[in-house]
Amino acid sequence: MTTAQATSSPAGDLGMAHLGQIIAVASGKGGVGKSTVSTNLALALAAQGAAVGLVDADLYGPSVPGMLGIETGKAPMMSPSGKVTPAQAHGIKVISMGMLTDDDKPAILRGPMVAKYLRMFVLDVDWGKLDFLILDLPPGTGDTQLTLAQAFPLTGAVVVSTPQDVSLKIARRGIRMMEQVKVPILGIVENMSGFTCPSCNEVTHIFHQGGGAEIAASLGVPFLGAIPLDPAIVDCGDEGRPLVIAHPDAPAAAVYRDIAAILSGRVRAAAGIPTPFDWHWADDASKPKPAAHAANAGGATEVPMALNRRDGRTLALHWQDGHDQQIDVRDLRLACRCAACVDEMSGRAVLEPTTVPLNIVPTRIWSLGNYAIGVSFSDGHSSGIYTFGQLRGMVAAEVEDV
């Protein structure tokens, strides 16, 4: 993760409080019903009185508009503020690549354009005041997942799997990826868990049973629920009326409502410094605010509570466990682990220390999700990612206060 390229357009002071809790719905593989879960979960949260937005972040295979009966291929309207007006369906607000292209027109996008569209879908849409913003991610652990984890302070992730062993094993990879970028795992959902008889609503387990709960227990993450496979889901998706709207009494709809209730009571703001931020070093413009909660001896070792410019050449950090640290900014530049400074195959440093000016200083420091910072230096270098774990591990002197 540390060798990836840092974004050159940090989130900055974007005023994202109006987006509420940002929850990613992810899966290790395709075909597990993740978009169905995202859509019905968003509607279940809205039915409980929450203001909900839904981002269809699967740019290559958008399916949410069809599930909600939203017209595709028609350019969305613009608000007076110059932002995109989201579609509205069944009480939630929605944005999707499917709204911008025809059904048979593929989205042929390289990585930088993927990042651009994802940022637009979150930041350039007139969401209004939300309680929850649900991100329906594509399957896997690639560009989209990393872009969102770096660009936005995700509240947490819900991981969707099916009862089959192969799906559960791949779900582990998705969980581990989220853990690496410090996105809390809100829980695992086991989809297609049993078959709901269309005549009597009785659920019969035709696949393995209990795999989702077992993997959740083994990884130490919550198990949110098992959603049975209901034939009505297909018809509901084709008709643009999801299950929780069309068949609120179905067993699967009841599980969605239960999961929504669990998430409503579980999600909370992060305890560290508020993100995102884009701090200009020379004049302290947009400096990150300190965390609202006080540090304590039992706190986490890799959660920063404050960042400060101790002097022109020293970055000072205060951690949740009460530890104070200061790092010389030239040492920070020498510690860069990007592909230009470290050989990715061997891990051998290729940066020659003598090429780094003695008077080098940062120009900007910005947040990368919940797990790292990016730094732009006066020598023009800006591609490094410094995880909180890496920063905490750097040799540093104790200071009296920060």
From TrEMBL:
Alphabetical list of SUPFAM superfamilies matching this protein: P-loop containing nucleoside triphosphate hydrolases
Residue ranges the record marks as coiled coil: none
Pfam families: GBBH-like_N, ParA
Any one Gene Ontology molecular-function term assigned to this protein's record: metal ion binding
InterPro entries the UniProt entry points to: GBBH-like_N, GBBH-like_N_sf, Mrp-like_CS, Mrp/NBP35_ATP-bd, NUBPL-like, P-loop_NTPase, YlxH/NBP35
Gamma-butyrobetaine hydroxylase-like N-terminal domain ranges (all copies): 309-392
Binding, ATP: G28, K29, G30, G31, V32, G33, K34, S35
Keywords assigned by UniProt, alphabetized: ATP-binding, Hydrolase, Iron, Iron-sulfur, Metal-binding, Nucleotide-binding
Free-text function comment from the UniProt entry: Binds and transfers iron-sulfur (Fe-S) clusters to target apoproteins. Can hydrolyze ATP.
Subunit structure, as described in the record: Homodimer.
Protein name: Iron-sulfur cluster carrier protein
Organism: Pseudorhodobacter antarcticus
